[in-house]
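Bump. Still looking for Exosortase/archaeosortase family protein structure tokens.
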Amino acid sequence: MTAAALPAPARVSNPARVLGAAAVLGAAVLLVACSAAVRAGEASLLAWVAGPVTDGTSRAIGDIAVIGGGTGQSIGVQITFMCSTVVLAVPLLVLGAVTLGLARFPVRAMLGGLGEALGIVLVANMVRYAGVLVAYQVWADEGFEISHHLVGAVFVVAAFVVAMMRFAIRVGRQR
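Sorry for the wait, here they are.
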């Protein structure tokens, strides 16, 4: 069998790709519009993740993750919009919408790469949040400042770069 005899990979028609791109872009807009609910969900997830690595009990109250319950020194950290995974996910969704609108990139590869990239930034942000809480509990305000503004920021930017690279590799490899 020659290369010429192989069937061409199935491509989504242009109207379907435009509709798909609009849906992904709509997901980005919806994520921003529902950011308060997303942040509350992140606080709940963080309380669950931080529980085993911090002293006392942990829980979420709205968009605030509280640790140290029962120790007499409870600490609450509010997840603000700018610290939320929303800020990392929206640019990835916009990139995904643009890529989906370009016919030369396979839809399956684009969606797989987008899913992987979104997973990377979500996990990285949860690790960053947990690190901030542990540092806050161990070293008080100084631990919070260093882990949040320096170490955590560098970590999450590096994770975002890795997410973008994984997206590009997955999409580009299957062109």
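Residues 13-173 form one domain.

Edit: fixed formatting.
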